[in-house]
User: What shape does this take?
Amino acid sequence: MSGTLDRTKLLAARYRAAIDRPYLATALFSITVVESARVPTMGVDRRWRCYVSPAFVARTPVPELAAVWIHEVAHLLRDHHGRATRLPPGTGDDHYRVNVAQDCEINDDLVADRLPLPADRVEPRTYGLRAGLVFEKYLQLLPKEVRSVDCGSGAHGVDRPWEHDDPGGVSDVEAEAIRRDTARQLRSRGDVPGGWRRWADQLLESKVDWRRQLAGAVREAVAWASGAVDYAYQRPSRRSAALRGVILPSLRRPVPRVAIVVDTSGSMGEPELAAALAEVAAVLRVVGVGGNRTTVLACDAAVQVTRSVYSAADVQLAGGGGTDLRVGVAEALRSRPHVVIVLTDGFTPWPDAPLERTRLIAGLIGAQAPEPPGWITAVRVDPTLQ
Amino acid sequence: MSALDGADALIAATRAHRTEPSADPRVEALALAVSANLPVLLWGEPGIGKSATLQQLATGLGLPMETVIASVHEPSDFAGLPIVGDSPATDGVPMAPPDWAVRLARTGSGLVFFDELSSAPPAVQAALLRVVLERRVGSLQLPDPVRVVAAANPPTSAADGWHLAPPLANRFVHLQWTHDPRTVARGLAGTWPAVTVPTVRPERARTSLARARGALAGFLTARPGLTHHLPEDAESRGGAWPSPRTWEMVLRLLTFHYSARTSTSALALAVAGAVGPGAGMEFVSYLENLDLPDPERVLADPSAFELPGRGDRQLAFLTAVIAAVQAEATRPRWEAGWVVLQKAVDAGVPDVAARAAADLAALREPQWPVPATVDAFIDVLSLSGRLPG
Ligand SMILES: [Zn+2]
Assistant: This one.
């Protein structure tokens, strides 16, 4: 069945969506409607154009159409196409599969919000998965064979034959402004579903992944340590002989020493500790601090073990209380490190004053970890952020 | 003809490329910041067409370009080399500047590109940043018209990601330099996007500056918390964040934007590159709202205005117009309101104006005749199942 688009019905549905969920009005009305006989139902592109099948509009009741509008705008607000391009290589090759994972991320919230989505929707339940995850996670969890869903390049990021190529519509920058505006409206209301609220919080607080924070703190400390002395005019450089009258500096670039102190007592979870250690190890490797420049100490009431090679498996979590990390830090300072990285649940006394020639970084594991003194660079290792 | 002549001709052919006009706001933002003579730091993986783009930009601006690959240099290449003369005690020890700096000083203008900044040893970086910030190379002062662009790998890059100290980060316009794979594919096929150089119109200079100052003052008065905000985490501190220094950079960007009429997207990227994405986006939204037509003026002459192009701004504008009618509901204003709403119908988006229409209809006094425009909204409202009582 074909025919011309019942634009009034389609826009009445958008109006219904915007009136029922006013926090989405800005985003919904930013979408441009494009009639298309080739799009299966409705689909969006990267520039916030919505391609609409006249047949789909004709056969779908207004309340369902309104729910589909919200579904489409959710792809755009959640920047699904941007995130799809950042998937690890090899994982996003099947764009239908990516699209199904994205629909799972969207639809669980919409169903919980009692929106009457069409009966052939996919949601986490369809595949026996739990609700509330991000699409990157669903992509890993989905079974091999999934339905082929196509919400357009605005979702999975791959151009579709029915989409326009011209640069009209909403630009990336405008899209970001619309997202922030929507997030702010969401946060100022009480009647918002949890999924949307989490999205808004994450967008506005720009919660940085703890891995990046921890890596950033370690890099910064190492850069500081290795920048202390590098080029010097003290010894003549080999180039000097060739240039009369010119004094050339010579390169002295110390590789910093790093000590890692692991709090083995308390309430730390093994997986979080392993993840934090792995992250620290990876950063140190990248910045060129090898195993021979690194010391690892496992510490509870008294320092039990000292190792010069580390891996997560080597650290035994002893459990029980009574940590005093000052003992561990003092022990670590004997190797004269430039940087000390402490991984702890935070329930410990800390040294009274900044260390003289050493930077101290604390990786705080567990949501309840108390804040260390201000002179310590603290990073919260938050297991809920993957 | 020697064997190598053929080879060289072939190599020259692979380098030759055409350009096509493009609306890449990232390139435009770069051109805007460089024109405004603000130091730019491009964050991106190596080898994604930074040099080619900068060369085009330099050519467009009529500037000679000097490329200095930081990672293969020593600090002396930026700080200058001490030269001991016959009597250093009386003459002092001058620092001899490197050749590229001498060339720039002689020409009096140019674009200097420091590539691979993050791969250089710390002392090289420190010396180089001194060039950027103090515009000094050894004993030589870089002329004011010389533009400076540097490139570094992002902190998350596996190769040699890098952190900039917050005070230094605060001196740059930070631009993310990633290329759309499609652009690269097209470029390798022989066509790269052309760089459009913003043309500053001198006759607009004065009003542009006044307008920019007014907008900035208005925004920072409304959002004083954004005047200075050092981010919590190390990574963000090494990027763009709001401070009086970076807002001053925004003032210059905005002045250039007004006087050269660059696109809003380019301005938004450049502003976000100076004060960070959060503050930058808020500022740009604020500017967009400033640009909405004044409801009172529109109601006074409803035939002469233009409906904003994007739905969200249409909504904001129509809401403001109806609020103005509600504040003073006379028959001429009420009727003018309907003329305004008719524009939304003509634009094919009656749903954007439907709520405004319902609100306007509710203000009707019994003796006022119902305008024909109402019909366009009745269908949308009743079909939606949300027709107000
Ligand atoms: Zn979808």
Notes: Residues A 71, 75, 103, 151, 155 surround zinc ion (CB under 6 Å).
